[in-house]
Amino acid sequence: MVISIFGLGYVGCISLACLADMGFNVIGVDIVEEKVNLINSGKSTVVEEQVEELIEKNRNKIEATVNTELAFSRSDVSFICVPTPNENNGALDLSYLRNVISQIAQSIKLSQKFHTVVIRSTVPPGTNREMCSLIEQISSKKSGVDFGVVSNPEFLREGSAVKDFFNPPYTLIASESELALAALKQIYSHLNAEIIVSKLEVAEILKYVNNTFHALKISFANEIGNICNSLKIDSHELMDIFCKDEKLNISSAYLRPGFAYGGSCLPKDLSALCELSRRNYLRTPVIDSVSVSNGFQVSRAIKIVEQFKKRTIGFLGISFKTGTDDLRNSPLLDIVEYCLGKGYNVLVYDNNINLSLISGKNKEYLNSKLPHIQKLLSDSLLTVIQSSEILVIGNKNVEFEEIKLSQNKSILDLIRVPELENIPGYHGVNW
Length: 431
What we know:
It is built from 16 helices and 13 strands. By secondary structure, it is an alpha/beta fold. Strands 3-2-1-4-5-6 form a 6-stranded parallel sheet, with helices on both faces. 33% of the residues are buried.
């Protein structure tokens, strides 16, 4: 298999060097002749550890050209690694990508063999489908039959890109062409990493999500460092201990999209940290915005309920967390309270709540939010289901997995019950 790489900047040059070291014959393509000459002389176009050594080592497998048609005709797979810079409004400029795809489409038009096009550039969701349509329009060939386009985002860090290429956490690919996916699986079978095949839009947006999360982590750590510094606390000692918790802190815990947080701990301690920051005359916009963002999730759920344009709502689970009767700061109570204030008919079923056993701060909070909760509670799930036009699922409960709906009823699922997703009238809050 011969691989052509369009764009000999950072990602393209590293990909060229590493793929050649994996044993593939690689043809680099760029409109800048200086870059082409560097590659052909065994040099790297970027400063990055190990790259030039790999290019020099594998010169017999590497060549570069400015001739798109030549590179296409001699390759089976084309990796697109052109830049996608920001426009003035923050969106990505796809003009370089469209230009290269248009050139490749002209070659596909004249070709009799199947060709795999791989988008390594960072692109917005929908780009793969757009490029498939563009190639079909120019070439008069059929996607999946004459060519296939694969989304294959890269996760290379400057300074450790070669190590990242050969030791990825996984390899992500997505395409509507099985032939194209097979070609990528063959290429990446040389790496000791799981190959994940996802939907197109998932692969296209993941790089954005990764880098935004990394930016969030850096900003969060810096704000914690600012607070620690004002209190004469060693922030590195603190964060070293913080990172040792791989069950909650550095893990997948709390990273499932869903509904707002609540309870006694998170709101209380977040508020206390924000106050500590203010008391020391610090600005911590990331930390301060957490509760604001949480409030938006409640508002969003309310808007969805209102869009159903139905007046009787059954809430299935209203405690802040499944398997508890803790109602303190439960965001579900905020929705119930809002709906009552707007004149909705509200019913509640929660088999964890026994009003005679609720006491202390929990009872105090419940009475402050819903003083007439007794009139809303039902001990019959069936009654709530039959009497409601909308069901809002707020907790996990095996009873809820068997819900059956009559016509004209809707479900708003805030926690994701997979068994219900195919029911007509089902709506997930974030899926």
